[in-house]
């Protein structure tokens, strides 16, 4: 049984257009030789999330050709999947498309480790999620001050995730989902659940909306992994990109192989 990782890197990066005019957001450099994508690949491998590069699948869209060239130049053996609908569907379709391709390419899949392509953080974020003993785990920052933009998380009386939403009142949220998760492939590659999601929400929704549907239907029990205080950033705006570069200045020196 093989564990795999998915990096979702198909987005347009429109809020960073001064940097992403000619490249996907995942290829933004953190220093003279390392990009966001490079850091993610090395983090997945150094923390033992996957056994080899061949088990890493990256979903590309905006300037997929540039990402493909970068992968070839670096000599990575990762699998690049081109999302044909990256410009008019949300990241729920990128996840759906990746799972559909993995179901055909990989025989017996165990766990899927999911990373948003604009996530920059410490290797402890990867390790804490990968070592979570529960089947379906998501990493939550329970320290950061919350506002309107954050993908917030609320939990039920058992401590399990009840809902993901940017619209949750910050006073009742336990934190922000940072874009790192692990789940059993068979639980999420559920044809009936995906069809129901497409009919009710549609692929204009976030993959967190799909998670919500799985929770409400009883198909998923999702457990938060709290890592408040560890530096990380979702690179959406120029200020985020500047913070990502600062994080890497500290992080890169302690990550083997970067």
SSE inventory with pairings:
Blueprint lengths: L1 E8 L7 H4 L15 H11 L9 E5 L3 H11 L4 E4 L8 H15 L3 E8 L2 E3 L1 H8 L6 E5 L10 E4 L5 E5 L9 E10 H4 L2 H10 L6 H11 L5 E4 L5 E3 L3 H14 L7
Parallel strand pairs: 1-2, 1-4, 2-3, 6-10
Antiparallel strand pairs: 4-9, 5-11, 6-9, 7-8, 7-9
Helix pairs in contact: 4-8
Describe the structure.
There is one protein chain. The chain has helices at 17-20, 36-46, 64-74, 91-105, 123-130, 185-188, 191-200, 207-217, 238-251, and strands at residues 2-9, 56-60, 79-82, 109-116, 119-121, 137-141, 152-155, 161-165, 175-184, 223-226, 232-234. By secondary structure, the chain is α/β, with parallel strands linked by helices. It has one domain (2-254): Spore Coat Polysaccharide Biosynthesis Protein SpsA, Chain A. Strands 1, 2, 3, 4, 6, 7, 8, 9 and 10 form a nine-stranded mixed beta sheet that branches. Strands 5-11 form a two-stranded antiparallel ribbon. The longest helix has 15 residues, at 91-105. The model has no long low-confidence stretch (mean pLDDT 93).
Features:
258 residues; alpha/beta; Spore Coat Polysaccharide Biosynthesis Protein SpsA, Chain A; two-stranded antiparallel ribbon; 23% strand; globular
């Amino acid at each position: 049984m093989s564990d795999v990782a998915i990096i979702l890197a198909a987005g347009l990066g429109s809020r960073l257009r001064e940097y992403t005019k000619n490249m996907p957001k995942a290829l933004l450099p953190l220093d003279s030789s390392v990009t966001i994508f490079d850091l993610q690949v090395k983090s997945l491998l150094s923390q033992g999330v996957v056994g080899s590069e061949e088990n890493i699948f990256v979903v590309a869209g905006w300037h997929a050709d540039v990402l493909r060239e970068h992968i070839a130049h670096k000599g990575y053996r990762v699998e690049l999947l081109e999302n044909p609908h990256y410009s008019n569907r949300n990241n729920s379709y990128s996840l759906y498309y990746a799972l559909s391709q993995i179901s055909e390419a990989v025989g017996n899949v165990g766990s899927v480790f999911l990373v948003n392509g604009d996530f920059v953080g410490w290797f402890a974020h990867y390790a804490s999620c990968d070592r979570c003993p529960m089947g379906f785990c998501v990493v939550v920052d329970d320290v950061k001050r919350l506002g309107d933009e954050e993908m917030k998380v609320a939990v039920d009386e058992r401590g399990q995730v009840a809902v993901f939403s940017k619209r949750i009142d910050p006073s009742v949220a336990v934190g922000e989902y940072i874009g790192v998760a692990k789940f059993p492939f068979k639980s999420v590659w559920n044809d009936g659940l995906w069809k129901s999601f497409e009919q009710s929400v549609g692929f204009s929704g976030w993959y967190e909306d799909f998670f919500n549907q799985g929770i409400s239907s009883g198909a998923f029990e999702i457990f938060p992994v709290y890592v408040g205080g560890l530096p990380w950033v979702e690179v959406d705006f120029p200020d985020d990109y500047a913070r990502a570069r600062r994080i890497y200045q500290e992080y890169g020196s302690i990550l083997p192989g970067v």
